[in-house]
Amino acid sequence: MNFDKELDARGLNCPLPILRAKKALGELTSGQVLRILATDPGSVKDFVAFAKQTGNELLSSAENNKEFEFYIKRK
Amino acid sequence: MTDLTNIDELINQRLEALLPQKLEALLQAREEAKTPSLAIIATKGTLDWGYPPFILASTAAALGWDVTIFFTFYGLQLVKKDLSDLKVSPLGNPGMPMKMPFGPDWFKSMNWNIPNIVQGNVPGFESLATALMQQTIKNNGVASLTELRELSQEAGVKFSVCQMTVELFGFDHNDFVDGMEYVGAASFLPVAQVADVTLFI
User: Using a CB-CB distance cutoff of 8 angstroms, which residues of chain A are in contact with residue B148?
Assistant: First the structure.
C-alpha cells in the first residue's frame, strides 16, 4: 500500500504510539496516508478506537511476527 | 367542529409517530458535534501514581478531547520543574511486584517478597526500589513522566493548581513549570460539572 509518511513506534509502549501517530498525522494533509509500525499488542485495539474518535480512517491493520502495521488516512 | 377535531387527532397521531425519530436524530447530531471533555483531580505525588493522570490526559487530548487536570495536595509534586526526585514506595504496598529489571529471564521473573519490617528498616530501600522501577520503565519503552507531561501541555491540556495546598506545603510558584493556572475549588467544580468524564486519581 502507498503511504506518504512512516512512523516507527516499535519498542514504544502505551500511550506513546497513539501520541506519536497523532503528531505525525498533524504533519500530513487531508487524504494522505500514514504507515505505523508498532510492537505494543495493546495498540491493535487502540488504533481502532483512535480512528473512530478522531475521524481519521484506519485503512488496514496487520500482524507480522509480533510486529503490527497500521495504515491511517488523514481526515 | 367535527372536522377540526379530526384534524387535531390526525396531527396528534402524526406527531406521535414522527417526534421520537426526529428527537433521536437531533440528539444524536448534538452528541456527535460535541467535543468530549475530561476533568482529572491529581492528588498523588509518587513515581507510580504520577502516570495515570498524564497518560489519560495526553491520550484524551490526542483523541481531540478538552482536558483539564487539577493538581492538589501531593499531586503538586507532578508539576514541579524537576520530577527526578519522585519516588515509589513498596512499603505497605502488597500489590507492587518486586522484580529485577536485569539479568537472565528466570532471574527477572522472580518476585522478591520482602517483609515490610525489612523494607522499613533498611536505609535507602525506597531509593533502591525507585531506581529499579525507573530502569523497568526504560526497559519497557514507557515514556518518562516529564515526557508525558510535556506532551500533555503541547496538546493543550489545561493545568490548574490548587493555590491553597501550594501555600499549605510552603511551595512557591517558581517551583512549578510554566503554564499553570492557580485556582481554588470553586474554579474546578464548574469544569467538572460539564465534563463527560471526571476522575479522582
Answer: 15
* ipTM at complex level: 0.83
pLDDT digits (tens, 9 = 90+) for A25-69: 999 999 999 999 999 999 999 999 999 999 999 999 999 889 999
Please give the share of chain B, as a percent, with pLDDT higher than 70.
99
Domains contained in chain A, CATH given:
5-35+42-73 (3.30.110.40)
Nearest by CB: B63 against A16, A40, A53? A53
- For residue B69 the three cell numbers come to 487536570
Which pLDDT value is given to residue A9? 94
Q: Measured between CA atoms, how close is B96 to chain A, in angstroms?
A: 20
Whether residues B22 and B41 fall in one domain: no
CB contact set of B69 (below 8 Å; sequence gap of 6+): B39, B40, B41, B42, B53, B57, B152, B157, B158, B159, B160
CB–CB contact B55 A16 (8 Å): no
User: pLDDT tens digit string along B152-173?
Assistant: 999 999 999 999 999 999 999 9
Range of the domain at B170: 35-200
CATH classification at residue B44: 3.40.1260.10
B64 touches chain A (CB under 8 A): yes
Distance CA B95, CA A58 (A): 37
- Residues 144-163 on B with a CB inside 8 Å of A are 148, 151, 155
Number of structural domains (chain B) is 2
Residue B2 has pLDDT above 70, yes or no: no
A67 part of the active site: no
